[in-house]
Each structure stands twice: as structure tokens, then as C-alpha cells.
Amino acid sequence: MKKDGRGLTTEAQRRIDRSRISQIIRDFSLKKGNYLDIEKIREDVVFRQYLREMEFVFHSTWGLFSPRDIDAGSRLLIRYMQVNETDVCLDLGCGYGPIGVVMGRLARNGEVYMVDRDFLAVEYAAKNVKANGLSNCQVRLGNGFDGLDTGKFNVVAANLPAKVGKELLYI
């Protein structure tokens, strides 16, 4: 029998994956009768968060990392990052932008560059910059430092994925 890295058989992993999907569907009322409600899935996930004693609103969607809530790693980074009000900051691999948006609020007289290689992430990061009323943030599509006008930053933050998704294992 073929087993994965955790010692699970392929069939056992499929059952776990199906169970997780079923739980997501139940948890978020994405069903309409016996079918998935595609229109409900297409709606933005919108949530409010208090970070560094400030309120933020975030828009996200399915397919982005941690779409319903800010993950523990990002929360930890946000809690302890030191950003002064005139700093030039970089959020590398910004996702939908929680780290960069907080940087933008903290560096209110500085600049924040938010970069991601995912089109959808960049779209939502820009939406969150606007939703939080920030004018000092620039969101860019790019791979790493490519396409940045400046190479000098006071603060660089990144909460990059610790492991790749299954899709990349088959490329």
C-alpha cells in the first residue's frame, strides 16, 4: 500500500480531504439544497480584526491563504515588528495584505511596498489598502524584489508558506 509522509494510505488521505471539504461547506453555509451555492463562494470573505490596538477590515476569498482570519504566524509577526512612522517598508509575499496594511498604518509618514506573485492576492491586497484608507501603500505584482523602484528598506517582513501545495509536487 502506498503511504504519504505521515504514514497515511492514499485512500485514508482522500477520506480526510473529503471530510475537510465537507466541514468547510457545513461551516460556511455554502450549500443550497444538495448543491454548492457557487454565488456564495464567489462573495468576498470580509472580516474585522484588532491588531496593534487598531481596527482593520479585510476582504479575502477562497483560494488565498487563510481567507477567513489572519493566521497565527502573521499575527505574531504583526505583534512584534518594529515600524516607525517614517519607515520605508516591504511586505514580501503579501497575500491579501494584512502585514502590509498594518505597516501602512504604523508608517503613516513613510512608504509601504507590498509584493506578491499571485494576481488574485495582489487584487485583494489593493482592495484592503483602499478599505483601510491608506495612501502610503503600493501593491505590486512581482516575484521577490523584481520590479521594485527602491532597494532600501527600513523594515522587510515576509510570512512565506512553509510548504508548497500538492499542485507543485506534480509539476
Summing up helix and strand content along with how strands pair, one would put the structural category as: alpha/beta
Task: Give the overall silhouette.
Answer: globular
Query: Numbering strands along the chain, what is their spatial order in the largest sheet?
Result: 7-6-5-8
* Count of runs of 4 or more consecutive helical residues: 6
What pattern of helices and strands is seen along the backbone? Answer: HEEHEEHEHEHEEH
Q: Biggest sheet: strands, sense, closure? A: 4 strands, parallel
The total count of strands amounts to 8
Query: In percent terms, what proportion of residues is strand?
Result: 15-25%
Helicity level: 25-40%
Let me know the average pLDDT. 82
Radius of gyration: 18 Å
Report the end-to-end length measured between terminal Cα atoms. 24 Å
Task: Flag low-confidence runs.
Answer: 167-171
